[in-house]
Protein backbone atom coordinates (compact mmCIF):
# COMPACT_ATOMS: atom_id res chain seq x y z
CA UNK A 1 0.00 0.00 0.00
CA UNK A 2 2.78 2.44 0.96
CA UNK A 3 4.81 1.49 -2.10
CA UNK A 4 1.76 1.89 -4.34
CA UNK A 5 1.12 5.37 -2.98
CA UNK A 6 4.78 6.28 -3.45
CA UNK A 7 4.43 5.26 -7.12
CA UNK A 8 1.45 7.60 -7.49
CA UNK A 9 3.33 10.39 -5.75
CA UNK A 10 6.10 10.26 -8.33
CA UNK A 11 3.75 10.71 -11.32
CA UNK A 12 2.01 13.85 -12.56
CA UNK A 13 -1.57 14.16 -11.35
CA UNK A 14 -3.98 13.14 -14.11
CA UNK A 15 -7.67 12.33 -13.80
CA UNK A 16 -9.26 9.27 -15.43
CA UNK A 17 -10.44 11.45 -18.35
CA UNK A 18 -6.92 12.76 -18.91
CA UNK A 19 -7.20 16.18 -17.25
CA UNK A 20 -3.92 17.32 -15.73
CA UNK A 21 -4.28 18.75 -12.26
CA UNK A 22 -1.77 20.92 -10.39
CA UNK A 23 -0.74 19.26 -7.15
CA UNK A 24 1.53 21.25 -4.89
CA UNK A 25 2.91 21.14 -1.37
CA UNK A 26 2.60 23.37 1.68
CA UNK A 27 5.99 24.08 3.22
CA UNK A 28 7.34 26.07 6.15
CA UNK A 29 11.07 25.93 5.44
CA UNK A 30 13.38 25.69 2.44
CA UNK A 31 14.42 22.21 3.62
CA UNK A 32 10.80 21.08 3.36
CA UNK A 33 10.78 22.16 -0.28
CA UNK A 34 13.44 19.56 -1.05
CA UNK A 35 11.47 16.84 0.71
CA UNK A 36 8.28 17.91 -1.08
CA UNK A 37 10.00 17.76 -4.47
CA UNK A 38 11.12 14.20 -3.67
CA UNK A 39 7.53 13.29 -2.77
CA UNK A 40 6.30 14.43 -6.17
CA UNK A 41 5.06 17.97 -5.55
CA UNK A 42 4.39 19.85 -8.78
CA UNK A 43 5.31 23.06 -6.99
CA UNK A 44 4.73 24.85 -3.72
CA UNK A 45 1.22 26.23 -3.29
CA UNK A 46 1.93 27.74 0.11
CA UNK A 47 5.25 28.69 1.66
CA UNK A 48 4.35 29.70 5.22
CA UNK A 49 7.18 32.18 5.70
CA UNK A 50 6.28 32.97 9.31
CA UNK A 51 8.42 30.03 10.46
CA UNK A 52 11.46 31.83 9.11
CA UNK A 53 10.57 34.64 11.51
CA UNK A 54 9.41 32.52 14.45
CA UNK A 55 12.59 30.43 14.44
CA UNK A 56 14.87 33.47 14.52
CA UNK A 57 16.05 35.44 17.58
CA UNK A 58 15.54 38.73 15.71
CA UNK A 59 13.82 39.92 12.54
CA UNK A 60 15.60 38.25 9.58
CA UNK A 61 16.98 40.82 7.15
CA UNK A 62 16.52 41.01 3.40
CA UNK A 63 19.61 38.88 2.58
CA UNK A 64 18.64 36.09 4.95
CA UNK A 65 15.09 36.00 3.61
CA UNK A 66 16.27 36.18 0.02
CA UNK A 67 18.53 33.16 0.53
CA UNK A 68 15.71 31.12 2.10
CA UNK A 69 13.26 31.95 -0.71
CA UNK A 70 15.82 31.30 -3.43
CA UNK A 71 16.74 27.97 -1.84
CA UNK A 72 13.10 26.85 -1.63
CA UNK A 73 12.44 27.91 -5.21
CA UNK A 74 15.61 26.18 -6.46
CA UNK A 75 14.46 22.89 -4.87
CA UNK A 76 11.36 23.05 -7.06
CA UNK A 77 13.49 23.32 -10.18
CA UNK A 78 11.40 25.81 -12.17
CA UNK A 79 8.02 24.67 -10.87
CA UNK A 80 5.91 27.41 -9.27
CA UNK A 81 6.57 28.41 -5.66
CA UNK A 82 3.97 30.62 -3.99
CA UNK A 83 5.48 32.62 -1.15
CA UNK A 84 2.98 33.94 1.37
CA UNK A 85 3.95 37.08 3.23
CA UNK A 86 4.19 36.61 6.97
CA UNK A 87 1.09 35.43 8.76
CA UNK A 88 2.00 36.48 12.30
CA UNK A 89 -0.59 37.18 15.00
CA UNK A 90 -3.57 34.98 15.80
CA UNK A 91 -1.89 32.00 17.48
CA UNK A 92 1.59 32.87 16.16
CA UNK A 93 3.61 35.28 18.29
CA UNK A 94 6.93 36.96 17.47
CA UNK A 95 8.85 37.74 20.67
CA UNK A 96 10.90 40.55 19.10
CA UNK A 97 7.92 42.30 17.47
CA UNK A 98 6.14 43.25 20.70
CA UNK A 99 2.57 42.74 19.52
CA UNK A 100 -0.24 43.91 21.80
CA UNK A 101 -2.15 41.35 23.87
CA UNK A 102 -5.65 41.05 22.46
CA UNK A 103 -8.95 39.59 23.62
CA UNK A 104 -9.67 38.14 20.17
CA UNK A 105 -6.32 37.60 18.44
CA UNK A 106 -7.89 35.81 15.45
CA UNK A 107 -10.07 38.86 14.83
CA UNK A 108 -7.31 41.29 15.58
CA UNK A 109 -3.94 42.51 14.47
CA UNK A 110 -2.87 39.61 12.28
CA UNK A 111 -1.19 38.74 8.96
CA UNK A 112 -1.65 41.42 6.28
CA UNK A 113 -2.93 43.81 8.93
CA UNK A 114 0.53 43.70 10.52
CA UNK A 115 2.10 43.87 7.06
CA UNK A 116 0.23 47.07 6.28
CA UNK A 117 0.77 48.44 9.79
CA UNK A 118 4.50 47.77 9.48
CA UNK A 119 5.09 48.44 5.78
CA UNK A 120 8.82 48.71 6.47
CA UNK A 121 8.83 44.98 7.34
CA UNK A 122 6.52 44.01 4.46
CA UNK A 123 8.73 45.93 2.02
CA UNK A 124 11.86 44.07 3.12
CA UNK A 125 10.07 40.77 2.67
CA UNK A 126 8.72 41.71 -0.75
CA UNK A 127 12.17 42.85 -1.91
CA UNK A 128 13.56 39.46 -0.86
CA UNK A 129 10.74 37.61 -2.66
CA UNK A 130 11.21 39.72 -5.79
CA UNK A 131 14.95 39.08 -5.86
CA UNK A 132 14.30 35.33 -5.58
CA UNK A 133 11.94 35.63 -8.57
CA UNK A 134 14.96 36.45 -10.76
CA UNK A 135 16.12 32.82 -10.34
CA UNK A 136 12.95 30.77 -10.59
CA UNK A 137 9.20 30.62 -10.83
CA UNK A 138 8.11 32.57 -7.75
CA UNK A 139 4.68 34.04 -7.00
CA UNK A 140 3.65 36.16 -4.04
CA UNK A 141 0.48 35.85 -1.97
CA UNK A 142 -1.04 37.99 0.77
CA UNK A 143 -2.79 36.34 3.78
CA UNK A 144 -6.05 37.35 5.51
CA UNK A 145 -7.19 39.84 2.90
CA UNK A 146 -10.69 41.01 3.89
CA UNK A 147 -11.33 43.82 1.41
CA UNK A 148 -10.20 45.40 -1.86
CA UNK A 149 -8.48 48.27 -0.08
CA UNK A 150 -6.06 45.95 1.76
CA UNK A 151 -5.15 44.17 -1.44
CA UNK A 152 -4.55 47.45 -3.27
CA UNK A 153 -2.37 48.74 -0.45
CA UNK A 154 -0.36 45.52 -0.36
CA UNK A 155 -0.01 45.63 -4.16
CA UNK A 156 1.15 49.23 -3.77
CA UNK A 157 3.94 48.15 -1.42
CA UNK A 158 4.90 45.45 -3.93
CA UNK A 159 5.10 48.08 -6.69
CA UNK A 160 7.26 50.30 -4.46
CA UNK A 161 9.59 47.37 -3.79
CA UNK A 162 9.85 46.74 -7.54
CA UNK A 163 10.64 50.38 -8.20
CA UNK A 164 13.39 50.38 -5.57
CA UNK A 165 14.95 47.28 -7.09
CA UNK A 166 14.78 48.77 -10.59
CA UNK A 167 16.54 51.89 -9.38
CA UNK A 168 19.29 49.86 -7.75
CA UNK A 169 19.63 47.61 -10.80
CA UNK A 170 18.64 44.41 -8.96
CA UNK A 171 17.11 41.67 -11.11
CA UNK A 172 13.59 40.33 -10.56
CA UNK A 173 10.71 38.90 -12.59
CA UNK A 174 8.76 41.92 -13.91
CA UNK A 175 5.76 39.68 -14.53
CA UNK A 176 5.70 38.08 -11.08
CA UNK A 177 2.15 36.98 -10.26
CA UNK A 178 0.52 38.35 -7.11
CA UNK A 179 -2.53 36.77 -5.51
CA UNK A 180 -4.51 36.61 -2.32
CA UNK A 181 -5.57 33.97 0.12
CA UNK A 182 -9.32 33.67 0.38
CA UNK A 183 -9.76 32.81 4.05
CA UNK A 184 -12.07 35.58 5.24
CA UNK A 185 -15.69 35.26 4.06
CA UNK A 186 -15.82 38.89 2.89
CA UNK A 187 -13.05 38.16 0.38
CA UNK A 188 -15.03 35.19 -0.97
CA UNK A 189 -18.19 37.29 -1.26
CA UNK A 190 -16.21 39.97 -3.13
CA UNK A 191 -14.38 37.45 -5.34
CA UNK A 192 -15.84 38.97 -8.52
CA UNK A 193 -14.28 42.35 -7.76
CA UNK A 194 -10.97 40.83 -6.65
CA UNK A 195 -10.79 38.64 -9.75
CA UNK A 196 -10.38 41.70 -11.99
CA UNK A 197 -7.24 42.72 -10.08
CA UNK A 198 -5.44 39.69 -8.63
CA UNK A 199 -3.54 37.08 -10.65
CA UNK A 200 -4.85 34.15 -8.62
CA UNK A 201 -6.71 33.04 -5.52
CA UNK A 202 -5.77 30.39 -2.99
CA UNK A 203 -8.55 29.27 -0.68
CA UNK A 204 -7.43 28.78 2.91
CA UNK A 205 -10.13 26.53 4.29
CA UNK A 206 -8.57 26.34 7.77
CA UNK A 207 -9.44 29.96 8.44
CA UNK A 208 -12.34 30.26 5.99
CA UNK A 209 -14.25 27.61 7.95
CA UNK A 210 -13.41 29.26 11.28
CA UNK A 211 -14.61 32.69 10.13
CA UNK A 212 -17.63 31.57 8.10
CA UNK A 213 -19.03 29.34 10.82
CA UNK A 214 -17.78 31.38 13.82
CA UNK A 215 -15.98 28.31 15.16
CA UNK A 216 -12.55 28.64 16.77
CA UNK A 217 -10.31 26.26 14.81
CA UNK A 218 -8.42 25.36 18.01
CA UNK A 219 -11.28 24.85 20.45
CA UNK A 220 -12.16 21.18 21.00
CA UNK A 221 -15.45 22.07 22.64
CA UNK A 222 -16.86 23.36 19.35
CA UNK A 223 -14.85 21.15 17.00
CA UNK A 224 -18.05 19.27 16.08
CA UNK A 225 -19.20 22.43 14.28
CA UNK A 226 -15.95 22.90 12.41
CA UNK A 227 -16.58 21.37 8.97
CA UNK A 228 -15.49 22.37 5.48
CA UNK A 229 -18.40 20.36 4.12
CA UNK A 230 -20.82 22.91 5.58
CA UNK A 231 -22.99 24.08 2.64
CA UNK A 232 -22.20 27.74 3.39
CA UNK A 233 -18.48 27.05 2.99
CA UNK A 234 -19.10 25.09 -0.20
CA UNK A 235 -21.09 27.95 -1.71
CA UNK A 236 -18.26 30.37 -0.96
CA UNK A 237 -15.74 28.02 -2.56
CA UNK A 238 -17.87 27.66 -5.68
CA UNK A 239 -18.33 31.42 -5.89
CA UNK A 240 -14.58 32.04 -5.72
CA UNK A 241 -13.70 29.46 -8.37
CA UNK A 242 -16.41 30.68 -10.74
CA UNK A 243 -15.46 34.34 -10.28
CA UNK A 244 -11.82 33.58 -11.00
CA UNK A 245 -12.65 31.66 -14.16
CA UNK A 246 -14.97 34.37 -15.47
CA UNK A 247 -12.00 36.75 -15.26
CA UNK A 248 -9.57 34.25 -16.79
CA UNK A 249 -7.76 33.68 -13.49
CA UNK A 250 -7.14 30.49 -11.53
CA UNK A 251 -7.97 29.27 -8.03
CA UNK A 252 -5.99 26.99 -5.78
CA UNK A 253 -6.68 25.63 -2.34
CA UNK A 254 -4.06 25.38 0.41
CA UNK A 255 -6.21 24.62 3.47
CA UNK A 256 -6.66 21.14 4.90
CA UNK A 257 -9.66 20.37 2.69
CA UNK A 258 -7.29 20.06 -0.31
CA UNK A 259 -5.65 17.03 1.31
CA UNK A 260 -8.89 15.17 2.01
CA UNK A 261 -9.63 12.44 -0.57
CA UNK A 262 -13.35 12.65 0.22
CA UNK A 263 -13.33 16.28 -0.98
CA UNK A 264 -11.36 15.60 -4.17
CA UNK A 265 -14.29 14.71 -6.51
CA UNK A 266 -16.26 17.71 -5.30
CA UNK A 267 -13.35 20.12 -5.75
CA UNK A 268 -12.56 18.72 -9.19
CA UNK A 269 -16.21 19.11 -10.12
CA UNK A 270 -16.24 22.70 -8.90
CA UNK A 271 -13.30 23.41 -11.21
CA UNK A 272 -10.50 23.89 -8.66
CA UNK A 273 -7.25 24.45 -10.58
CA UNK A 274 -4.59 23.67 -7.99
CA UNK A 275 -4.43 21.58 -4.79
CA UNK A 276 -1.78 22.32 -2.18
CA UNK A 277 -1.27 20.14 0.89
CA UNK A 278 1.21 18.63 3.31
CA UNK A 279 3.64 16.67 1.11
CA UNK A 280 2.69 13.41 2.83
CA UNK A 281 -0.84 13.70 1.39
CA UNK A 282 0.21 13.98 -2.28
CA UNK A 283 0.19 10.25 -3.03
CA UNK A 284 -3.30 9.69 -1.61
CA UNK A 285 -4.79 12.64 -3.49
CA UNK A 286 -3.09 11.73 -6.78
CA UNK A 287 -4.45 8.20 -6.48
CA UNK A 288 -7.93 9.57 -5.78
CA UNK A 289 -7.83 12.00 -8.71
CA UNK A 290 -6.58 9.31 -11.10
CA UNK A 291 -9.87 7.44 -10.59
CA UNK A 292 -12.08 10.47 -11.26
CA UNK A 293 -13.92 11.58 -14.37
CA UNK A 294 -14.36 15.33 -14.59
CA UNK A 295 -17.84 15.30 -16.11
CA UNK A 296 -19.12 12.91 -13.46
CA UNK A 297 -17.59 15.15 -10.80
CA UNK A 298 -19.32 18.21 -12.28
CA UNK A 299 -22.70 16.50 -11.91
CA UNK A 300 -21.74 15.45 -8.40
CA UNK A 301 -20.83 19.04 -7.50
CA UNK A 302 -24.12 20.35 -8.92
CA UNK A 303 -26.14 17.98 -6.79
CA UNK A 304 -23.99 18.33 -3.66
CA UNK A 305 -24.38 22.12 -3.76
CA UNK A 306 -28.14 21.70 -3.35
CA UNK A 307 -27.74 19.86 -0.02
CA UNK A 308 -28.41 21.71 3.21
CA UNK A 309 -26.30 20.06 5.93
CA UNK A 310 -22.66 18.94 6.26
CA UNK A 311 -23.96 15.48 7.10
CA UNK A 312 -25.92 15.21 3.85
CA UNK A 313 -22.86 16.41 1.92
CA UNK A 314 -20.60 13.79 3.51
CA UNK A 315 -23.13 11.06 2.81
CA UNK A 316 -23.39 12.04 -0.85
CA UNK A 317 -19.61 12.13 -1.20
CA UNK A 318 -19.18 8.77 0.50
CA UNK A 319 -21.81 7.24 -1.72
CA UNK A 320 -20.10 8.63 -4.83
CA UNK A 321 -16.82 7.17 -3.69
CA UNK A 322 -18.32 3.76 -3.04
CA UNK A 323 -19.93 3.79 -6.48
CA UNK A 324 -16.61 4.36 -8.28
CA UNK A 325 -15.01 1.67 -6.14
C1 LIG B 1 -5.68 28.38 5.91
O1 LIG B 1 -6.13 29.24 6.69
O2 LIG B 1 -6.38 27.51 5.37
C2 LIG B 1 -4.24 28.35 5.59
C3 LIG B 1 -3.76 27.54 4.67
O3 LIG B 1 -3.43 29.17 6.33
P1 LIG B 1 -2.92 28.81 7.79
O4 LIG B 1 -3.32 27.38 8.06
O5 LIG B 1 -1.44 29.01 7.75
O6 LIG B 1 -3.64 29.81 8.62
MG1 LIG C 1 -4.93 30.93 7.32
Automatic annotation (TrEMBL):
<protein>
    <recommendedName>
        <fullName>Phosphoenolpyruvate-protein phosphotransferase</fullName>
        <ecNumber>2.7.3.9</ecNumber>
    </recommendedName>
</protein>
<comment type="similarity">
    <text>Belongs to the PEP-utilizing enzyme family.</text>
</comment>
<comment type="function">
    <text>General (non sugar-specific) component of the phosphoenolpyruvate-dependent sugar phosphotransferase system (sugar PTS). This major carbohydrate active-transport system catalyzes the phosphorylation of incoming sugar substrates concomitantly with their translocation across the cell membrane. Enzyme I transfers the phosphoryl group from phosphoenolpyruvate (PEP) to the phosphoryl carrier protein (HPr).</text>
</comment>
<keyword id="KW-0460">Magnesium</keyword>
<keyword id="KW-0808">Transferase</keyword>
<keyword id="KW-0418">Kinase</keyword>
<keyword id="KW-0598">Phosphotransferase system</keyword>
<keyword id="KW-0963">Cytoplasm</keyword>
<keyword id="KW-0479">Metal-binding</keyword>
<keyword id="KW-0762">Sugar transport</keyword>
<feature type="domain" description="PEP-utilising enzyme C-terminal">
    <location>
        <begin position="5"/>
        <end position="292"/>
    </location>
</feature>
<keyword id="KW-0813">Transport</keyword>
